């Protein structure tokens, strides 16, 4: 019997990074593709990414930069590597340029270069995108899926790709709906917590440094394998910047057991800090504390150190009493009491449990024909283009698997 409704080859729930790239690949293969996007327009998170410049990938992308099973990241990268990603966007007409730390942006320095290129290619490939259309339920039955929207419209497809993203940044499309849909289909959700977000510190004295930026290494005291090196920005609530953001996922998880001690090393570049101190003492050991540290640290940090250590401004220093302040600068103790709220989190840690999907296809192990991609999965990357890379790579991999069916 012929169905009396349209049966799409693939319905993609979520017109973000992962969903759009997946849709493009499927549509270019000649499939009937429908993208359902709850927002008034697709690709809104791409638009705000990278401060409006879209850091779309990173030359150093590797499992080391993700909180996820390395086998999953390796599988995704084997389908869509850094080079593949650059070639892909260049083939869409996006000229790219690389900045420090391997971060790649559109040369136009505007995220819209990426989102518009994707939208144009989707149009050319004949994919249908319905905006302002939120999916509220998905039912799997007899090798087909029935997808129902908030407006009670019903669509049918052989394959469904859940590419709803995470609940981070709710002011720009972030939602819990994707987790609810995955759960309703039997998937396990690792409770999401904010990541890539500023750290609120207990030590209020540090707010004196608000606005100060420095290069540091941060380390989780109770799990020293979690470290991040780079710029730290002091704020009126605590700290931000890559050296804070890149430990924030681990901190977020650890916060479930109470406040989290973190150490800040203000001299991460020194191979032998003791030799450096000894040499400086030899040359400048006659100076008063503040003058001794001038040229090494921001003045605000020196003043804070002097207060923190209870040093008198004019006290004579010697090799012995420089030890404690020096050790403090190599492991300044702070306590994280909270992460900044979801509205400031660039991503979520947690999501759909990844061992419930096939790593080589991103197909659900529970429902053949259901694919789950992007940030909805329990995968979070460090800052620098890693999260978008995973979104593209998982969307691309799912599309290849759908094509091969
Ligand atoms: C401020 C900010 C800056 C960022 N900067 C960078 C950066 O420079 N580099 C980087 O790598 N990463 C960055 N990220 C992270 C990156 O944007 C995300 O990891 C990436 O967009 C995830 O892609 P996705 O396709 O999984 O989800 P999204 O891009 O979030 O797309 C999901 C889409 O699904 C839609 N949707 C959700 N539920 C439904 C539903 N039920 N029905 C229909 N539609 C639905 C949403 O409206 C959304 O459009 C940034 C994030 C933020 C918030």
Summary of the model, kept short:
The chain has 405 residues and is α+β, with helices and mostly antiparallel strands. The protein folds into two domains: 7-193 and 343-404, FAD/NAD(P)-binding domain; 198-340, no CATH class. The protein has twelve helices and 20 strands.
Record keyword descriptors for this entry.
seven-stranded mixed sheet; 405 residues; alpha+beta; binds flavin-adenine dinucleotide; 12 helices; FAD/NAD(P)-binding domain; single chain; elongated; 2 domains; six-stranded antiparallel barrel
What percentage of amino acids are in beta strands?
Answer: 15-25%
Total domain count: 2
Largest sheet: 7 strands, mixed
Low-confidence stretches: none
- Helix share of residues? 25-40%
Mean pLDDT: 95
Query: What's the name of the CATH homologous superfamily of the largest domain?
Result: FAD/NAD(P)-binding domain
CATH class of the largest domain: Alpha Beta
Radius of gyration: 25 Å
| CATH fold-level assignment of the largest domain | FAD/NAD(P)-binding domain
Q: Report the span from N to C terminus.
A: 23 Å
CATH architecture of the largest domain: 3-Layer(bba) Sandwich
Bound molecules: flavin-adenine dinucleotide
Number of DSSP helical runs: 12
- Overall number of strands: 20
| Broad structural category | alpha+beta
Shape category: elongated
């Amino acid at each position: 019997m012929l169905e009396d409704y349209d049966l799409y080859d693939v319905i993609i729930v979520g017109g973000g990074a992962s969903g759009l790239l997946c849709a493009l690949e499927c549509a270019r293969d000649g499939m009937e593709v429908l993208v359902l996007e709850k927002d008034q327009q697709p690709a809104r998170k791409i638009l705000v990414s990278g401060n409006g410049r879209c850091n779309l990938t990173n030359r150093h992308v590797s499992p080391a930069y993700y909180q996820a099973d390395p086998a999953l990241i390796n599988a995704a990268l084997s389908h869509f590597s850094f080079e593949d990603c650059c070639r892909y966007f260049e083939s869409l007409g996006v000229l790219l340029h690389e900045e420090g730390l391997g971060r790649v942006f559109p040369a136009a320095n505007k995220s819209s270069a990426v989102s518009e290129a994707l939208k144009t290619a989707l149009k050319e490939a004949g994919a249908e995108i319905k905006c302002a259309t939120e999916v509220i339920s998905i039912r799997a039955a007899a090798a087909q899926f029935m997808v129902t929207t908030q407006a009670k419209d019903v669509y049918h497809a052989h394959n469904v790709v859940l590419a709803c993203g995470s609940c981070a940044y709710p002011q720009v499309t972030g939602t819990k709906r994707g987790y609810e849909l995955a759960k309703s289909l039997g998937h396990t959700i690792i409770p999401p917590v904010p990541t890539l977000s500023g750290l609120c510190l207990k030590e209020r004295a540090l707010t004196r440094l608000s606005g100060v930026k420095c290069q540091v290494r941060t380390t989780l005291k109770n799990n020293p394998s979690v470290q991040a090196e780079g710029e730290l920005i002091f704020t009126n609530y605590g700290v931000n910047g890559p050296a804070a953001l890149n430990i924030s996922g681990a901190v977020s998880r650890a916060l479930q057991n109470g406040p989290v001690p973190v150490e800040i090393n203000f001299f991460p570049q020194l191979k032998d800090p003791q030799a450096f101190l000894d040499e400086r003492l030899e040359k400048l050991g006659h100076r008063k504390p503040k003058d001794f540290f001038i040229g090494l640290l921001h003045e605000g940090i020196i003043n804070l150190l002097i207060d923190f250590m209870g040093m008198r401004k004019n006290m004579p220093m010697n090799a012995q009493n420089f030890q404690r302040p020096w050790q403090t600068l190599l492991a300044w103790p702070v306590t994280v009491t909270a992460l900044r709220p979801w509205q400031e989190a660039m991503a979520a840690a947690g999501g759909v449990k990844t061992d419930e999907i096939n790593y080589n296809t991103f197909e659900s192990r529970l429902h053949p024909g259901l694919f789950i991609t992007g940030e909805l999965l329990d995968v979070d990357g460090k800052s620098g283009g890693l999260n978008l890379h995973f979104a593209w790579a998982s969307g691309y991999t799912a599309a290849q698997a759908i094509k091969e069916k």
